[in-house]
Amino acid sequence: QVQLVESGGGLVQAGGSLRLSCAASGRTISGYAMAWFRQAPGKEREFVAAFSSSGGTTYYADSVKGRFTISRDSAKNTVYLQMNNLKPEDTAVYYCATPRAPWSPGWVGRTEREYRYWGQGTQVTVSS
Questions:
Q1: What torsion, rounded to 10 degrees, do the Cα atoms 30, 78, 47, 61 define?
Q2: Pairing outcome for strands 3-7 and 18-25
Q3: How large is the average pLDDT for residues 67-92?
Q4: Which of 5, 33, 72, 115 could be stapled to 97 by a disulfide with Cβ–Cβ 3.0 to 4.6 Å?
Q5: Angle at 85 between CA 34 and CA 61, to 5 degrees
Q6: What is d(CA 121, CA 119) in angstroms, rounded to the nearest whole number?
Q7: Which residues have CB under 8 Å from 101's CB, separation 6+?
């Protein structure tokens, strides 16, 4: 049973930083794509960032490119999302996700339906 647990959310002023963590259990994160999504009130869940299955490539939504960085620590089986220069529009519940299977080494999904396992989410609130 794959479980993902996010942490690190909170309230921060615009321009500030937060680092989110996603601790995985039940299988290794190596060899599987890992992604961050977010959902703001009244909006659909949207892709934020991801590692490809091999971990060799990272992908970002245009809205966070240059401000957010996804990284991982295989020894801790944990994925991180470093968020800098936060804006009020970044306010959302942030979720990490991983697919059912490794698929191909370069695979990465950018839609909800491509991911099987999800964490419970962590709230990020950015005040202006």
A1: -90
A2: antiparallel
A3: 97
A4: 115
A5: 40
A6: 6
A7: none
Burial class (CB in 10 A: 0-12, 13-18, 19+), 83: buried
CA atoms within 13 A on the CB side of 45: 17
8 A C-beta contact, residue 38 and residue 96? no
What would the two tokens of residue 90 be? 């970044």
CA-to-CA dists, residue 125 to 19, 42, 53, 83, angstroms: 13, 15, 30, 12
Q: What percent of the chain has pLDDT over 90?
A: 90
Assess contact for 98 and 4: CB atoms under 8 A.
yes
Task: Name the DSSP letter for residue 9.
Answer: -
Give dist(CA 51, CA 88) in Å, integer: 25
- For residue 7, pLDDT over 90 is answered with yes
Residue 113 DSSP class: G
Nearest to 83 by CA among 63, 107, 55: 63
Give the strands of the sheet with 18-25, arranged side by side.
3-7, 18-25, 78-83, 68-73
